Each structure stands twice: as structure tokens, then as C-alpha cells.
Amino acid sequence: MNVLRGESVSPGIAVGPVHLRGYDDDEIGVSRIAADQVEAELERLRAAVGQSRAQIEEIRGKQQGQLGEAELRIFDAQIAYLGDPSFVAEIELQVVQERLAVRAAVKTVYAKYDRIFQLVENEILRRRASDLRDVATRVLRNLASGEPSARKAPAGRYVLAARKLTTADMFNLDAEGVDAIVAEEGGMSSHAAILARGMGIPTLTGIRGLPRLLRDGSVVVVDSDHGELRVDLTEAELGQYAERSQTWKSLQKQAPETEARHETRDGTAVELLGSCGSLGEAEMSRTFGLAGIGVFRTELAFLADKRRPTEDELVAQYQKVIEGHPGQPVNFRLLDVAAGVFAPGDKDPERNPAMGRRGVRGLLANQDILRLQLRAILRAAAGTENVGVLVPFVTSVMDLQRVKAILIEERLALRKAKVAVAGSLALAPILEVPVAAFSIGALAVESDFLVLAIDDLQAYLLAADRDNSAVREYHELAHPAVFEFLARIAKEADRLEKEVVLFGESAADPQRMPFYIGAGFRRFSIAPVRLRKLLKVLRRYSADECRRIAARVLEAPRAVDVQRVLVNVETD
After folding, report:
1. How far is the CA of 382 from the CAs of 73, 331, 419, 424, in angstroms?
2. From CA 208, how far away is CA 50, in angstroms rounded?
3. Helix (H, G, I), strand (E, B), or coil: what is residue 266?
4. Among 373, 311, 308, which residue's Cα sits nearest to residue 344?
5. Residue 328: CB partners within 8 Å, gap ≥ 6?
6. Which one of 11, 50, 125, 416 has the largest count of C-beta atoms within 10 Å of its C-beta?
7. Pairing of strands 523-526, 500-503
8. Do the beta carbons of residue 451 and residue 503 sit within 8 Å?
9. How far apart are CA 410 and CA 374, in angstroms?
10. What is the average pLDDT across 156-178?
11. End-to-end distance of the chain based on CA atoms, in angstroms?
12. C-alpha distances in angstroms, 334 versus 299, 308, 386, 460?
């Protein structure tokens, strides 16, 4: 058995035959046509565009009950692109002027969008380029479907393997049997990734050279819980993973817990909250029995469509989230995106958006968006309690004070206008930049609680982007300094009597959970699908045992020594 490491985009486990999708596009050459063939090629294009639009409309209808409004708007945006005359005109131009066969013309336009996707730093343009690329891919698939060389998907369930994670390959009406996805490219925030998580499809990305590693029809295991693609398995190994896959599938259909309070083996209380980015994930958090929503990421409503959402639209969405968790904490993270989203069309893009005007910096520079979100949250939370506002990318007390002042201004303005608003909202900074984590004493004075974004904090501490597969090993390194820093934060928060919510993929790592408990953390914001494994760990260890594990981790001088301690944590 060979094990290939990738990035987990959507958790879960699946076993099935491989279907390599989209690699035939590489064989589309620059084929020219005669002048008398132009009209026939244009007619083929129009038919494929109409077929693509009908497919997306049908898929949207089928997913109506499974996906939330924001996710469904991804399909609306693609339908709009297919109805955009300029999109079709761009392809027609290649056919008429360059005398390209229609598939070659689509591929030329496809390549253009792909270059945009690779090069631009503006987040909105990247999203639009990604959507246009997905639309072009669907048109290309429909043009190829009638050709003898077109490869059909397997009749049953299968593992989709593709160069890029695209919605066009995920949703095919002739073969809706995608059990799992493995792709060479595609990040956590792409529209395809959002839909994969919303539909519960195990998904891995970042594994290069899939046609070289996999054969069409060969049976593989996608273990997205551990970020692994397993190939060349024996019959016995396949049988074991098939059982695990069936167990995982059956568990997804039922809530694992109904109580909101969870404990270690000796009864030490631990609060497990949900991390969500859509109404679908928020509903999953509720049905899984999590204690509320620790972090609701608000970006999807702003990025799923060309236009900015209205205040009333945001109020309606936020109200649904709050109403789904009556009496429980619900914390909305303010828009956390690069500067390009705030200023689309900026002719002077930032060279390093990750360290530019993102998060609270962008919001304070574009206060119309900040005020829009704060008003929507204030209105949505009217008559309720336990609703919080999370401020991303805080680096100083001044960031928090300025947001707090604007929040007060907007509450007073709404009250003056006789609009019902929340009596109070909890305010918390998200500690992701090391300087903020070093300054929690000052930040604690201005906040009601603290949120620690472990993945981002670790990325900055180790200078390794978690979405960059080339440096993944650096980000995943169990560096002693990271654990020492976390322990110091827990100790300082305890001294200040401030609650800390741990947030991020690493916060739901079963191997690290005993360390977190032993270091003093008690509140966690996790993806709902991560709950079961964490419950197993909690029930296996007492608080005293966790403290001993934490002590051993903090005594370990090297990353390999830390890893030796963690690998002995029993998670199954």
C-alpha cells in the first residue's frame, strides 16, 4: 500500500474506483476549420451553452434541500455567466476570426481564465475567474460528450480524480456517483470546496501527477480525515477500509450526540462549538448536538455573487443562524478577506495580501462594509442573547476599540430610527497574528472573550502557508515553540479570567486534543464532522492524564520528540 499526502478540503473516508476526469482536455490541439464550417461550429457552441445552462438549473433544483442559499447562489452566478453575451462572444471570436474548432476555442478561453486564476491577487477577480473557468469546463464537457473518444464516468459510485477542483466535474447529471474527490489543485476557499463540504463529499487536493499515480478503474481509498490517498491496497486492506467507509457514511446520517455539554473521562467539562461558513453547515452543527457556533465565517455571502449583499439579505441569513441555535452562543466573524474584495478593480494591488489590508484593516479602511455587517448582526440578534462579533486580524488594542466605537454608533443610530436591535453583543478579537497573542493582557480588557485561530497563528510563527503544498511539511511540523506559545496563552488567559475559544483545523486534531486540555483550554470551535473523533479522545482521557501529556510535550526539545508524544495518543 502506498500513501500519498494531500490537503484535506472536506473530511471523510471513501473507497472506490478512480475516474480520471478532464485530462483528455490536454489532447485538444489547435485544430483549424474551413470557412464553410464556421456556422456549424457556432451552432454546436450555442447548443452546448444551452445544455450547460439547463444542467446547472436542474442541479440547483436537486440541491435545493441540501445546500443553503449562499451555496446555491454559486450556481446562480454560473447561470448568469452562461447568459452573458460577452462570454459566448469571446469564444465565437476565436471560431470566426482564428478559424479554431469550437473545442479548441473554448480551451483557449479556458486557458485565459486559468492564467487569471493563477496570477491575480484580487480575491473577487480570482473567484470570478474560477467560476468562468468552471463554466468553460462544463461547456467543454458537453461539446465532447457526443464524440466517440469521450470517456464516460462509471455507472456506480466512484472517486473523481482531476487536475483542478471544479464544480463542472463534481456535478454531472449523467453520473451523479461521486463518492470522493482528489485533485491536484484547488484550495479550501474555492466554490467547489465549499460545495464539497456542504454535501459531505470527502475531498483531498494538492497531490500532483495523478495520471501518473492512478489508473482509471483502480480502487483507492480517500482518507480525508488524515489527509491521505491510499493506493495499491491488498484485498484485505480494501475490505477494512470499505467497512470504515460504510461506518462513516452511516454516521453522517445521524447526529452523534444530543447533549451540548461534553466531558473528559473524569467529568471535566469541555465545550464543543461549531465552525461554519454556510447555513447548511450551521444546521449540521445543530443536528450534531454542538453547543452553539463558535465561529460563523461570513465571507460566502460576499463572494458567491458579483454584487454586494444588501443589509436585509444579511439580516435574514444571520437570523436563520441564530434561530437555529436558540439560547446557545453564536459568534459571527466579520469579513476576513484580502484588500481586493473591498476595492475591486484596484489598479495597485498589494504585493503580499496575506500581510496587507485584510480583516479588520480592510474593514476599517472600508467602513461602509463594516457598518453594513454590524447593523445586520445587531438587527438579527434583536431579542436574543449570546450573540458575539469576532474581529479578524487584530494586531492592537486600537483595532478593537475602533470597531467597538462603530458598533456603539450603529446601535444608537438604529435605536434612533426605532429599529429593534440586540441589547448587547459580545466582542472578541481573533488572535492569529503573534503580536496579538503576545498582547492578550491589553486586548482582554477591551473584549468579552478571546478566539485563538491556531492554523493562522502557526502559519505566521513557522512562516509557512498552510495552503501551499510545497511547504506543507513546515506548517504541519510539531514545532516545540508552537506548543510552548499555546501553553503560555492558556496560562495568561486563565490569569486574566478570560475564556478562550480554540478555532481552526488544528483545534479539531484528535492527537493534539489531550495537550489542549492539559494546557488549560476548555472551549473549541470545530467543523461538525470532526465531532465523533474528539468525543472518543475526551472519553478516553482524564484531565490529569491530559496534564501529564501536555507536560511531556512541553519538555520535548525537538519536533520529532513532540511528535513521538502525540503519536501515542489513542484516537480510535
Report:
1. 27, 14, 9, 9
2. 34
3. coil
4. 308
5. 260, 291, 292, 293, 386
6. 11
7. parallel
8. yes
9. 7
10. 75
11. 21
12. 8, 15, 16, 21
CB neighbourhood size of 515 (10 A): 26
Give the contacts of 183 (CB within 8 A, at least 6 positions apart). Answer: 161, 162, 163, 164, 165, 203, 204, 205, 207, 210
Q: Which residues contact 249 (CB under 8 A, 6 or more apart)?
A: none
Instruction: Examine the pLDDT at 339 and tell me if it is beyond 50.
Output: yes
Residue 8 belongs to a domain with what CATH number?
A: 1.10.274.10
Amino acid at 460: Y
Residues 6+ away with beta carbon under 8 Å from 426: 329, 331, 386, 387, 388, 389, 448, 449
Report pLDDT digits (tens) over 222-249.
998 888 999 999 999 999 999 988 888 7
How do residues 384-425 score in pLDDT, each as one tens digit? 999 999 999 999 999 999 999 999 999 999 999 999 999 899
pLDDT the model gives residue 76: 82
Pull the grid cell for residue 85: 453575451
As for how many domains the chain has, the answer is: 2
352 and 228 belong to one structural domain: no
Per the prediction, the chain carries an average pLDDT of: 85
Q: Are residues 166 and 294 in the same domain?
A: no
Q: Which domain holds residue 320?
A: 263-486+499-508+521-528
Write out pLDDT tens, residues 16-74.
999 888 776 656 666 788 888 999 999 999 999 999 999 888 888 887 766 767 677 77
- How is residue 376 written as a grid cell? 445586520
Residue 525 is predicted with a pLDDT of: 95
Mean pLDDT, residues 171-193 = 73
How many helices (H) does the chain have, and how many strands (E)?
25, 17
Give 492's pLDDT tier (boundaries 50, 70, 90): very high
- Give the three-class secondary structure for 158: strand
